[in-house]
Amino acid sequence: MNVSSVEDAGLQISPGELAELRQGHEELKLLDVREAEEQEVVRIEGALPVSQTLVDDMLASWPRNTPIVTYCHHGIRSLDAARFFIEKGFTNVKSLAGGIDAWAIQIDNTLPRY
């Protein structure tokens, strides 16, 4: 395993771990980094759609220890987003492994898949 894939593994959270973390963890911010068209098809309840306005607000006023989980369709773009927030000083950031597709398979099979 190369260094990059080891680092990626450390940045990821499984759907099951996220489901557990969401129970009673009100301060957790779930960020949907997919395109608006994708978000119209399906989304995880309570997720915030990422926009430039949200990112600006995060960088200006969110505590850097805010628990954040990013997600996309399959977990690739959300890894990039997680790295971005870590580079900006956030210390508690994870990416949903497998994205919303894995979430729909493992946690909520009522969600449509695309």
What would you say this structure looks like, in words?
The chain has one domain (3-106): 3-Layer(aba) Sandwich (Oxidized Rhodanese, domain 1), CATH 3.40.250.10. The chain is of the alpha/beta class and 114 residues long. The protein has a five-stranded parallel sheet with strand order 1-5-4-2-3. The chain starts with a helix and ends in an 8-residue tail after the last helix. The protein is 46% helix and 14% strand. Helix 5 (77-87) links the parallel strand 4 (68-71) and strand 5 (93-96). The protein has helices at residues 3-11, 15-22, 36-41, 52-61, 77-87, 99-106, and strands at residues 12-13, 29-32, 48-49, 68-71, 93-96.
Largest sheet: 5 strands, parallel
> So what's the CATH class?
Alpha Beta
Total of helices: 6
The helical percent reads 40-55%
CATH topology: Oxidized Rhodanese, domain 1
The radius of gyration over CA amounts to 13 Å
What order do the strands of the largest sheet run in, or round the barrel if closed?
1-5-4-2-3
Strand content: 5-15%
What is the residue-averaged pLDDT?
Answer: 93
Distance between the first and last residues' Cα: 30 Å
User: Which term fits the overall shape?
Assistant: globular
Number of strands: 5
